[in-house]
């Protein structure tokens, strides 16, 4: 029985120290007007005008533009103040003209970057620029880019600005983004960073409370109930007497979910009833819907299926949630509930509804992905054209400069001919040496570019392969798996409606074959995207892989040496796929009965050795025509700058020795990203 978390949009509502507070107070507006009119400092008057422009942006665009103009006239012409002006242009147009706002932010950061402004207020401004730029991307539902901007821009600039007390908020934002994408392990890493900073950073109780609530929810989802309970007990002291706040509402929702995970369903129902009443009082329909779904889960686990159905049916038919993923969970849970009640027609109907929504969601995602790829391509083409124009301009300037030097040399006359000849000879020799050196450097750069391009192509192919595996595994599980389950439900329903033994044992055999087919399909899906690798690490995943090939007549001996999970996730996936392919070759083509798999690790170096007693093969034939499997292994080894040695002969078995070097960012859960 699945649970879900609503996407509440917490990211867009988060505030940073360098962001201006909302100017809702008339008194504050009056004070800014007074400062703009009377303060002796032009710089402070300029800032007052910018704040007023931000205040009027959503109320009176003409007035906002007037204040922007006043701020620009008072700001002076320093590079920093020019960037400030563009930043506030972006803030003013943030809601009304997102494209203009986006360009203003990029132009402001470009000024700070080009002129290498590295004082703290400049870093504060750059952090604010990229934070607001991320807000624009979040509205486009580009979560991947938002996370990258936080890790590569906002957090580093916040550190450089010395705003350490804001870092917990940043990591909470990243954790919330990963949680919304159901990446709960990654979300837990960043929420853990936020928790670890609370003892050293001075943060407000409201932020501490938000981090605790997010931590409880994340730990509960990941099954770490003791840690969830630890932080859950700290929340009431921070909430205090504010028992009608949104924070207390989230606390009650965590209470319900935590008690369900602990199988304390009675206590969960108590929390659900209190939370539902408070959500209705606060008119928070989405959270009220969350409580109703938790009530369904509690009743379902108590085997009170009719009550569970009565709770979930209104949500599935007319829920407030706008999110397709959440509706899919409703439909799937409702189908499972009707199956428990023996109403196979309704179970099939809701399962079919689930399948229809899943298909449309996958199609929409594919369309959006194509659009994003096309936009990236167009941007790359534009950058290429700009680079060509710059190169032509530089070349023209260089030619003009050389022409001027040559003309000046001719004007010196015959009187200085000898001196000119000597200087020219020296200059020629120098230019020749310089030209030769430039040619060598250019050749080296070309080689490096070709190598980098090859690595990029290989990485793209490998990443594409893994994404395709994941997509096929998901389609097998959610698509074909759902269809087989529907067939089983129909057969079971039909069998239940016939007189006993009227159909003999044939139908029972068909149903058992369907069960076996579903189990085999799920095993295939798990093999294409192994859960053990992501949940328990590389060593456990490799051991499972070896155990899967061990059966009557075939023995696989797995020997790990000093394996850790500090290598990057892409390398771990590569090692897993290589071992998987080598085991498959040894069993299918080599007819081996005894296989030894050795894996060892030394910091960023990884060694794989696979030896079998199979029939072997002629290497000279293989060199002329590699199989698809061996070609894929060679591509993976090449990408990680590794070596592959293959030893085999007919009748003498096969030995494969592979060395890999991890040149990507390590996967260390204790290291703070960014």
Question: What is the fold's blueprint, element by element?
Answer:
Layout: H1 10-13, H2 26-38, H3 42-56, H4 61-75, H5 79-92, H6 98-114, H7 120-139, H8 143-160, H9 167-180, H10 184-197, H11 205-221, H12 225-232, H13 235-239, H14 246-261, H15 265-282, H16 285-301, H17 305-318, H18 324-341, H19 344-410, H20 417-497, H21 506-528, H22 531-536, H23 538-549, E1 555-561, H24 569-588, E2 594-602, E3 605-612, H25 619-624, H26 628-639, E4 643-648, E5 654-661
Parallel strand pairs: 1-2
Antiparallel strand pairs: 2-3, 3-5, 4-5
Helix pairs in contact: 2-3, 3-4, 3-5, 4-5, 5-6, 5-7, 6-7, 7-8, 8-9, 9-10, 9-11, 10-11, 11-12, 11-14, 12-14, 14-15, 14-16, 15-16, 16-17, 17-18, 18-19, 19-20, 20-21, 20-26, 23-24, 24-26
Largest sheet: 5 strands, mixed
Helix content, binned percent: over 70%
Detail the poorly predicted runs. 2-24, 666-674
User: How far do the termini sit from each other?
Assistant: 36 Å
- The amount of beta strand, in percent, is 5-15%
Biggest sheet: strand arrangement: 1-2-3-5-4
Alpha-beta content class: mainly alpha
Whole-number average pLDDT? Answer: 79
Number of distinct beta strands: 5
């Amino acid at each position: 029985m699945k649970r879900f978390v609503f996407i509440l949009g917490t990211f867009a509502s988060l505030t940073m120290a360098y962001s201006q507070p909302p100017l809702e107070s008339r008194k504050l507006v009056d004070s800014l007007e007074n400062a703009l009119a009377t303060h002796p400092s032009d710089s402070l008057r300029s800032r007052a005008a910018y704040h007023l422009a931000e205040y009027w942006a959503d109320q009176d665009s003409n007035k906002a533009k007037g204040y922007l103009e006043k701020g620009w006239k008072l700001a002076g012409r320093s590079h920093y103040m020019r960037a400030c002006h563009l930043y506030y242009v972006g803030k003013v147009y943030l809601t009304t003209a997102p494209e203009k706002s986006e360009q203003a932010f990029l132009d402001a950061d470009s000024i700070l970057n080009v002129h290498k402004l590295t004082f703290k207020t400049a870093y504060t401004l750059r952090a604010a620029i990229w934070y607001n730029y991320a807000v624009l991307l979040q509205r486009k539902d580009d979560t991947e880019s938002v996370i990258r901007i936080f890790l590569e821009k906002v957090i580093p600039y916040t550190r450089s600005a010395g705003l350490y007390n804001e870092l917990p908020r940043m990591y909470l934002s990243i954790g919330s983004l990963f949680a919304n994408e159901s990446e709960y392990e990654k979300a837990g890493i960043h929420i853990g960073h936020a928790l670890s900073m609370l003892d050293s950073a001075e943060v407000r109780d409201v932020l501490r409370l938000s981090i605790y609530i997010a931590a409880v929810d994340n730990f509960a989802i990941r099954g770490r109930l003791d840690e969830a309970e630890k932080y859950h007990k700290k929340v009431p002291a921070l909430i205090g007497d504010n028992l009608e706040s949104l924070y207390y509402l989230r606390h009650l929702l965590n209470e319900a979910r935590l008690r369900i995970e602990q199988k304390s369903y009675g206590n969960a129902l108590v929390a659900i009833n209190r939370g539902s009443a408070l959500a209705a009082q606060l008119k928070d329909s989405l959270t009220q819907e969350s409580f109703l779904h938790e009530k369904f889960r509690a009743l379902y686990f108590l085997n009170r299926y009719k009550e569970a159905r009565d709770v979930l049916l209104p949500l599935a038919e007319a829920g407030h949630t706008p999110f397709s993923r959440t509706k899919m969970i409703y439909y799937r849970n409702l189908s499972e509930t009707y199956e428990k009640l023996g109403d196979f027609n309704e179970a099939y109907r809701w399962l079919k509804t689930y399948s229809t929504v899943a298909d449309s969601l996958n199609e929409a995602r594919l369309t959006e992905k194509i659009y994003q790829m096309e936009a990236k391509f167009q941007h790359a083409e534009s950058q290429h054209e700009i680079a060509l124009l710059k190169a032509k301009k530089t070349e023209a300037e260089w030619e003009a400069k050389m022409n001027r030097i040559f003309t000046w040399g001719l004007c010196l006359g015959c009187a200085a001919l000898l001196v000119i000849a000597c200087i020219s000879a020296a200059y020629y020799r120098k230019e020749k040496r310089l030209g030769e050196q430039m040619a060598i450097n250019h050749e080296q750069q070309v080689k490096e570019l070709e190598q980098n391009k090859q690595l990029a192509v290989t990485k793209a192919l490998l990443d594409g392969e893994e994404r395709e595996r994941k997509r096929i595994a998901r389609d097998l599980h959610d698509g074909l798996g759902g269809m087989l389950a529907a067939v089983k439900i129909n057969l079971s329903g039909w069998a239940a409606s016939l007189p006993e033994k009227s159909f003999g044992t044939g139908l029972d055999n068909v149903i058992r074959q369907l069960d076996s087919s579903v189990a085999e399909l799920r095993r295939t899906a798990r093999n294409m995207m192994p859960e053990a690798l992501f949940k328990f690490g590389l060593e456990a995943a490799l051991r499972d892989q070896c155990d899967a090939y061990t059966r009557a007549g075939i023995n696989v001996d797995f020997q790990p040496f000093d394996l850790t999970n500090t290598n990057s996730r892409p390398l771990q996936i590569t090692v897993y796929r290589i071992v998987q392919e080598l085991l498959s070759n040894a069993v299918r083509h080599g007819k081996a009965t005894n296989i030894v798999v050795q894996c060892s690790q030394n910091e960023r170096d990884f060694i794989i050795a696979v030896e079998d007693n199979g029939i072997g093969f002629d290497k000279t034939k293989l060199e002329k025509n590699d199989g698809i499997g061996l070609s894929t292994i060679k591509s993976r080894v090449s990408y990680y700058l590794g070596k592959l040695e293959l030893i085999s002969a007919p009748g003498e078995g096969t030995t494969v020795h592979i060395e890999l070097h991890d040149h990507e960012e390590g996967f260390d859960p204790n290291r703070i990203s960014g």
